[in-house]
Design brief:
The structure holds 2 protein chains of 2 kinds. Chain A is of the alpha/beta class. Chain A has helices at 11-14, 18-32, 37-46, 50-57, 71-79, 94-107, 120-125, 128-142, 153-158, 162-171, 193-209, 231-245, 276-281, 297-305, 319-333, 339-359, 370-382, 397-408, 424-433, 446-452, 476-498, and strands spanning 63-64, 85-90, 114-115, 146-151, 217-224, 248-251, 285-290, 309-312, 363-367, 386-392, 417-420, 438-441, 456-458. Chain A is built from 21 helices and 13 strands. Chain B is an alpha/beta fold. In chain B, 45% of the residues lie in helices and 13% in strands. Classes of the chains: A alpha/beta, B alpha/beta.
């Protein structure tokens, strides 16, 4: 009997004990009717071939292990970045349970959102009653300053009209007439979570800016971070940079406090976020900068429409992308980039120079949201690495073209390939047929690591199986240092593992590297 | 082992009044029916009386806008019943999200070569786009099935798990499944588990059960040499290896587990189920339907059992053995005796560390009642419990488990649960991922009782040791004493039931 009170074995060691191994072997043999081992092995080997890759990449309908989520997740994340704002998702209720779980598993934090809980009768008659009752309940129970409405695909298929429903609910007294209920239609069958983020933020801006007079406040800047699982670390780092420059800025959507509340005995359902008053005033900013272009296409278009200058970045991390961002801020605000930041920059470059021999020529596969992949590819090339496979399931042809242009600008991008719209099962074939040294992505990449042996570096949402990485910044020079160190750790750990066999390979098990 | 105690029913009744007072009148009226205080304990022999005592309204629609913790029919079918069947490909048919959020999240352990002959921890989706909504998705589904056949030829079959839009746009997934099953000579099961159907996960379980009946049973010749000791384990999803820690006991007592539904299951195990002698059902809520069907159609008896904690495990082993007669009964006693020293050692080690600690539960399926005794075996006290998606028959079965004064909450809302926990200040809360972090922020230890907080198994004797260890490490971790900054004056302790 393997189990004991002195040394309790949980699943990982327990089922490796002989009793269980024998039990499972017999289950397989006697009851499972499996394919013969040889057939399984052969098929496994076949999936590593170019022939399989071609079939795999030729898929037209089936999607396997995509690296994207649906629009309302982005809308719920967006709403979490505004002061005392409750997400209200109109449609089926199971969706909301999923968004909340998904966000909680990544941030290790509470994630609040409510549903209008539509069922079959609402599918037939529409969800107006659900909206009317739902807004009243949410308003009364959760004491929000704003309720941000988005939709599940169910409400979208039956064509519920949010604007008129919200008006109706106000007429019926669900919430006071002047209570803020911005909305965004976020059908799951269009785009991905980054687009849901986009329309949700745009909906909030429109709600507060429509019909308002703009009086430009020169030198002031709005910053829209985009859907970012590292918002906790990134937003705080960016604010530090902007404070150092001394620019007047407003974050439009900032979930850094909401997803990083302290443990001190009090549960804060709401914390931090852009103040409603700041959102109103943000209309007057001279410029709006987006940190993730493909998260904010519609929002930026709207900002331009009201007369603001706009600029966008691709998840600015590393040296040159941070340079670009700071110079843009400097140009708009008329403020100098302080010497302190030049020194910080120098320290990142110093670290890269110290480690360059370990990074030069390393090949990478990078996947994630379009802006992240772009930003990461750019940084990898700065370190002398080669972004061999760049994949975004929610990448568009415009993204593909833009990224190709970046890759063409450096000799390190020469052999790189861009995979827009492909999924992680496709990436599996790519990694078998054109292997790389390192894989950069999120927790889902662990299956690729297992199958192909490519070491995985978790640097983007969602990260379920490692803790607290999102609390540290990736953007800016400081963030670059963090990314650099994370990559190097992976390289050194692997090298140590591969050279640690006593008397066989440990001549290379160097103390200093 | 039975623990005698009574809960503070007066406090609980007050808490119910307080939360209800915060709702708009209409909603307060509706929520009132879901909240109650258990009136009487589980004295044996008073079955019919006890049954009605902690009754609340259940399995009815959630109120909009209140933050229900429930999921949907898709979650009940793909997430719970079908998803763990390991040698089939389960297509999340519709937009990308449902499959994405449920991908690999239930910890249904299995052995197999993933992506080659097993597919549980993968996300297959038709990733619906606007054009699929407008023109229908049947053609796309046909194509998807063909592509799966080409790229994953060792699959033993497929299921088509309908997401919300499918039922709304009038797709005929049944026709596609039927035709493609014939063409590829494979089992293809359409499951109409659109998320808007029903009021929770529960209808999804039922629909998934019906799909087994209608699309799997009696579709093929099943070659199988039966024995008099053949049982199916039904409603064990092998979370963290639960079904394995159960199977080992059943085999030790001389039974043959010919099918496990549905953790670590193959299609063959499901097809063969009607040939077994007895269905042993753990999660009654999610799989009683198919057991009733098998009883009616094939004359297979079914029996509920409970493998959480030694008291219930022991009682269940004896109950199961009784069905098979003296020989198996004798073997069951050998099994019980074999594990007794382990049980004694686990209790000797952990009970002093957990004695008298109070627990609030809010989970789904069988756990709001089934785990009660496991806690009590460790000397812990259940002060509140409730079901996400229970039915009347679940609450009836709960009467035996809970003590007088226990707070009962059905389909609890985020607001209510927070207020109840704040008011009661239990020593431990057992619930899900959405509840974990709010509770921990309050300084109250928490264990996820859906995923076992990435631990497990919790079933059987081996599982009980892990369960005890986990409850201890949650409650007795030093972090809970670090919440107050020493330079801040300590807040007045709330109406806590004192620990220790």
């Amino acid at each position: 009997m393997p189990q004991s009170a002195e040394k309790v074995l949980d699943h990982a060691p327990l089922f490796r004990e002989p009793e269980y191994r024998q039990m499972l072997a017999e289950k397989r043999l006697n009851f499972e009717c499996p394919h013969p081992d040889q057939i399984v092995t052969d098929q496994g080997e076949f999936t590593k071939t170019w022939e399989y890759r071609e079939k795999n990449l030729a898929r037209e309908a089936l999607v396997v292990n995509p690296a994207k989520a649906c629009q309302p997740l982005g809308a719920v994340f967006a709403a979490a970045g505004f002061e005392r704002t409750m997400s209200f998702v109109h449609g089926s209720q199971g969706c909301v349970a999923y968004y909340r779980s998904h966000l909680s598993r990544h941030f290790k934090e509470p994630a609040s959102a409510v549903s209008s809980s539509m069922t079959e009768d609402a599918a037939v008659f529409g969800g107006l009653k659900n909206m009317v009752d739902g807004l009243a309940n949410t308003y009364q129970l959760y004491d929000p300053k704003m309720i941000a409405v988005s939709t599940t695909c169910m409400a979208e298929v039956i064509g519920d009209d949010l604007h008129s429903f919200i008006e109706n609910a106000k007429d019926e007294g669900s919430v006071p007439r002047d209570f803020d209920v911005p909305f965004a239609h976020t059908p799951a069958f269009v785009g991905s979570h980054v687009d849901g983020y986009d329309v949700a933020v745009k909906g909030i801006l429109e709600h507060f800016w429509k019909g308002e007079e703009r009086t430009e406040a020169e030198g002031t800047i709005n910053i829209i971070p985009g859907f970012d699982g590292f918002c906790v670390g990134n937003n705080r780092e960016l604010k530090r940079l902007l404070d150092l420059i001394g620019v007047s800025y407003t974050f439009i959507q900032d979930a850094s406090d909401q997803f990083d509340t302290p443990s001190d005995g009090e549960y804060r359902m709401y914390d931090g976020g852009t103040k409603i008053e700041e959102v109103r005033k943000a209309l007057n900013a001279e410029a709006t900068l987006s940190l993730q272009r493909y998260n904010t296409r519609k929002t930026l278009e709207y900002c331009e429409g009201v007369g603001q200058a706009t600029a966008s970045f691709h998840y600015p991390l590393g040296v040159q992308a941070t340079d670009d961002f700071l110079m843009e801020v400097s140009a708009i605000s008329g403020k100098q980039i302080p010497e302190a930041l030049r020194l910080e920059r120098g320290r990142l470059v110093d670290a890269m120079a110290d480690s360059q021999s370990w990074l030069h020529g390393k090949k990478y596969a990078i996947y994630g949201d379009p802006d992240f992949v772009y930003g990461m590819a750019r940084f990898i090339m700065e370190t002398g690495g080669e972004p061999t496979h760049c994949l975004a399931t929610n990448g568009t042809s415009a993204w593909e073209a833009e990224l190709k242009e970046l890759l063409a600008s450096s000799p390190f991008g020469k052999g790189a390939q861009v995979w827009a719209g492909k999924d992680l099962w496709a990436l599996r074939s790519l990694l078998f047929t054109e292997p790389v040294d390192l894989l950069i992505g999120n927790s889902y990449g662990k299956y690729l690591e297992r199958d192909t042996g490519t070491p995985l570096i978790r640097l983007t949402f969602p990260i379920f199986d490692r803790h607290h990485h999102h609390r540290f910044a990736l953007m800016g020079y400081q963030g670059g240092l963090r990314v650099l160190t994370t990559i190097l750790d992976k390289i050194f750990d692997k090298l140590d593992r591969e050279t640690s066999e006593t008397g066989v390979t440990d001549y290379s098990y160097d103390l200093t590297r | 082992m039975s623990l005698e105690y009574e809960n503070d029913g007066g406090l609980h009744a007050r808490l119910i009044e307080e939360v209800l007072s915060q709702y708009p009148d209409k909603s307060a009226k509706r929520r009132k029916k879901h909240l109650s205080v258990a009136k009487s304990g589980d004295e044996a022999g008073e079955e019919s009386e006890v049954l009605s005592e902690c009754e609340v309204k259940s399995n009815i629609k959630s109120i909009p806008g209140v933050m229900t913790i429930r999921g949907c029919a898709y979650a009940g079918s793909k997430g719970v019943v079908w998803g763990p069947v390991k040698d089939m490909v389960h297509i999340s048919h519709g937009p990308v999200g449902c499959g994405q959020y449920s991908w690999s999240q239930r910890r249904n352990y299995y052995v197999g070569t993933t992506g080659i002959d097993t597919f549980v921890t993968m996300q297959f989706t038709s990733d619906f786009q606007e054009k699929d909504i407008v023109f229908g998705g049947d053609k796309k589904l046909e194509r998807i099935i063909d592509e799966i056949e080409e790229l994953f030829p060792l699959n033993k079959g497929m299921t088509v798990q309908s997401e919300c839009p499918i039922g709304l746009i009038g797709d005929d997934t049944e026709a596609v499944s039927r035709n493609k099953a014939k063409e590829h000579e494979k089992t293809i099961v359409p499951v109409r588990c659109e998320g808007f159907r029903g009021v929770s996960q529960s209808l999804g379980h039922h629909i998934a059960n019906d799909a087994i009946r209608d699309w799997v049973f009696e579709k093929k010749e099943v070659e199988f040499e039966a024995s008099p000791y053949d049982v199916n384990v039904v409603g064990d999803y092998n979370i963290g290896g639960d079904a394995w820690a159960s199977r080992i006991l059943l085999e030790e007592m001389g039974l043959r587990v010919v099918g496990n539904w549905s953790g670590d299951a193959t299609l063959a195990e499901i097809e063969r189920a009607p040939k077994a002698k007895l269905n042993l059902i753990h999660c009654y809520r999610s799989m009683n339907y198919i057991c009733r069907h098998m009883e009616e159609k094939y004359g297979i008896a079914w029996m509920e059992y409970n493998f959480f904690g030694p008291s219930q495990t022991e009682a269940s082993l004896r109950k199961i053995a009784k069905h098979f007669g003296p020989e198996i009964e004798a073997k069951a006693e050998v099994v019980i005796a074999k594990y007794r020293p382990l049980v004694d050692a686990v209790i000797a080690k952990y009970r002093p560390r957990l004695e008298g600690r109070t627990v609030m539960l809010y989970v789904g399926g069988l756990r709001p009642r089934h785990v009660v005794t496991a806690y009590e075996d460790l000397g812990m006290v259940i002060v509140g419990t409730g079901y996400e998606f229970g039915h009347n028959d679940d609450y009836q079965r709960t009467g035996h488990y809970v003590k007088k004064g226990t707070l009962i909450y059905d389909d609890v809302t985020g607001y209510e649960l927070e207020k109840f926990i704040e008011g009661i200040r239990p020593d431990l809360v057992g619930s899900g991922i959405k509840e974990k972090y709010p509770v921990q922020k309050m300084g109250i230890p928490f264990r996820q009782m859906h995923s076992w907080d990435y631990s497990g198994p919790y079933h059987g004797y081996d599982g009980f040791a892990i369960f005890a260890r986990d409850m201890d490490l949650a409650i007795n971790n030093p972090v809970w004493n670090l919440y107050d900054a020493p330079w801040k004056k300590k807040a007045e302790p709330s109406a806590a039931i004192a620990a220790e």
